[in-house]
Amino acid sequence: MAREATRRRDAERRGRRAESLAALYLRLKGYRILAMRFKCHAGEIDIIARKGDLAVFVEVKARVSEQLAVDAVTASAQRRIRAASDVWLSRQADAHRLSQRYDILACLPRRLPRHFPDAF
User: Fold this and answer.
1) Cα–Cα distance between 83 and 40 in angstroms, integer?
2) What's the pLDDT score for residue 11?
3) Which pTM value belongs to this model?
4) Dihedral of CA 55/57/60/65: which sign?
5) DSSP single-letter state for residue 22
6) 14: Cβ–Cβ under 8 A, 6 or more apart, which residues?
7) Where along the chain do its domains lie?
8) Cα dihedral 56, 60, 65, 68 sign
9) Pairing assessment for the beta strands 54-62 and 114-116 based on DSSP bridges
10) By three-state DSSP, how is residue 66 classified?
11) Under a CB-based contact definition with an 8 Å cutoff, are residues 23 and 39 in contact?
12) What's the fold here for domain 2-116?
């Protein structure tokens, strides 16, 4: 049981580091970070960013390869992210003006993050 807790804690730390790196990377690409780790009854979104009138909902995955990162965002995860984005948008006064996009950002060992815009 202690090993499982340690493994879970280490995964949580890796995930938080990957999300911080992803947010920095997006800022450097001209995005404004609106929220990190947005949670609601419908699900969780790692990063919500904005560029102009585009709201971008980003799922961050720390994996050893790009393909593993993309494959880790399953259909059920996509449904949860979309549902959570609907909740977030419902709370925004200017939501009617925003376009939406769902991205994946893969954080890979010893490499720059890889951004997959409009991934799903």
Assistant:
1) 9
2) 85
3) 0.92
4) negative
5) H
6) 62
7) 2-116
8) negative
9) unpaired
10) helix
11) no
12) Trna Endonuclease; Chain: A, domain 1 (3.40.1350)
